[in-house]
Amino acid sequence: xxxxxxxxxxxxxxxxxxxxxxxxxxxxxxxxxxxxxxxxxxxxxxxxxxxxxxxxxxxxxxxxxxxxxxxxxxxxxxxxxxxxxxxxxxxxxxxxxxxxxxxxxxxxxxxxxxxxx
Length: 117
Fold this sequence. Notes:
- This protein is mainly alpha-helical.
- Helix content is 87%, strand content 0%.
- The protein has helices at residues 2-18, 26-46, 50-78, 82-116.
- Helix 2 (26-46) runs antiparallel to helix 3.
- It is elongated, with a radius of gyration of 19 Å.
């Protein structure tokens, strides 16, 4: 009986996940990318090395890409083009990942500067 109940809960959870609206998470991804870019910029300002500056620029570019993709996702969803909305949402999420990786690279560059000084 417990296995049946657990299976029902898992199935319901998966069904709810599948029913999420296209572009629902794109604005959240863009906001997270902006946060990562701000973090990278602050790190680069504190440790102004070429590597940190480059990583911060990459994070900012990724955040701009995420913002545009989120706007595209919302627009496509409003127009009823779910496939395009889902694609734009995926771009926003990938750009978020890129911004976060760039922020980590900026931190690594700053840390490397600290250990060599």
